[in-house]
Amino acid sequence: MNQFDHELDTRGLNCPLPILRAKKFLGTMTTGEIVRIMATDPGAVKDFEAFAKQTGNELLDSIEVEGEFHFTLKKLT
Amino acid sequence: MSDKKLTIIASKGTLDWAYPPFILASTAAAVGYQVTMFFTFYGLQLLRKDLDLKVSPLGNPGMPMPLNMDKWFPVLGTAMPGMETVMTQMMKKTIKSKGVATIAELRSLCLEAEVKMIGCQMTIDLFEFGRDDFIDNIEIGGATTWMENAGDSTVNLFI
After folding, report:
1. Is residue A23 part of a domain?
2. Is the CB of B102 inside 8 Å of chain A's CB atoms?
3. Residue A15 appears among annotated catalytic residues
4. Is residue A1 part of a domain?
5. Would the CB atoms of B27 and A13 count as touching at under 8 Å?
């Protein structure tokens, strides 16, 4: 389990809103900080991998917890 | 600024087809693309201040219908008066219940992410729209303006 500095709740939101919220939130963070993002959209699993790859941020963890998806993202850019 | 670029031509003006261009544009902007959208013909409806987009089941066999209506009244059922309004209301309700963004929301997210939006001058003249019919933060231009962006773009889509 990774430690995190911030938490972002995108539960109940559908594509592409979790990604857009995450992008916006990363803008408020400083480099090196970690955010845990919670989502219920199953499409978000692949999308957060692709998001991290394309934006140069690091997806530390992607897990399913009781029907929810939790992502741990480290801001690198 | 990134050198990845996406351009989209949005040519459709219904509630369902308003989604692909705005979803792709906002997402592309979020992953670092410079995005230009060109709205032509019915796509211009997506730039109106008073968004009033509808979805029509008529001539759309792929659209799921309530109560097996398409089985009982194929074609005719979808042509019934008021069907467009009913289907539009149902679609909006479903969109809300599934946590899908509204078009107005996606459009403002795009503008916030500095997606460039161009309204087609020729179509505006053709349909006798006025500049005031459209939101403020757009440009008005023609095919050449789009080409200027599309020519060195990584991805170009026609929707």
Report:
1. yes
2. no
3. yes
4. no
5. no
State how far the Cα of B153 lies from the Cα of B55, in Å rounded to an integer: 31
* Complex ipTM: 0.84
d(CA A70, CA A63): 5
Q: Which residue of A has its CA nearest to B4?
A: A54
Chain A positions touching B27 (Cβ under 8 A) are 16, 19-20
CB of B30 less than 8 A from some CB of A? yes
Write out chain A's pLDDT in tens, 77 residues.
Answer: 568 999 999 999 999 999 999 999 999 999 999 999 999 999 999 999 999 999 999 999 999 999 999 999 999 98
Number of domains in chain A: 1
Distances, alpha carbon A62 to alpha carbons A12, A15, A47, in Å: 18, 17, 11
B77 contacts B65 by C-beta, under 8 angstroms: yes
A20–B109 C-beta distance less than 8 A? yes
CB neighbour class for B141 (10 Å; exposed up to 12, middle 13-18, buried from 19): middle
Q: Out of 3.40.1260.10, 3.30.365.10, 3.50.50.60, 3.30.420.10, which CATH number does the structure's domain B5-55+102-158 have? A: 3.40.1260.10
**pLDDT-above-90 percentage for chain B:** 78
Of B27, B31, B99, which is closest to A14 when you measure between CB atoms? Answer: B99
Q: Is the pLDDT of residue B67 over 90?
A: no
